[in-house]
Design a protein that fits this description.
With 123 residues, the protein is mainly α. The chain has a domain of 62 residues. 69% of the residues lie in helices and 0% in strands. The chain contains four helices and no strands.
Amino acid sequence: MLRPRRAEPTETSWAEAFSDGAFAVAITLLALHLGRGHGDPNLGDDTLFTSIGHLWPTMLAFAASFVFIGVAWTNHHHVFVRVKGLSRGLNAANLLFLAGIAMTPWATTTLAEALSLPGTHGQ
């Protein structure tokens, strides 16, 4: 196959596959930061539920970030359905967008840690 000229747009399937992979990795990294409840089975179920209840900042940040990444992925798909060719500029914009998506798990962890600090009330 001949290499396209610089000014000619290329097909988008490889960029879509790469983008889907980046979204999948971001969501996986979100799930890796979920904590576990540490209840004592000898003290009854109340301790386990109390322990899980202390994880609410992490769960809230995870849910918000999961919805954010899901909406971004859906919109990304709808945009690429309409794109007929990928230029260098669009490729660069897509990579910058994916860099923001890749930062979401870090931002989520930072937010959850801030919400978990005693006495700060999420300030």
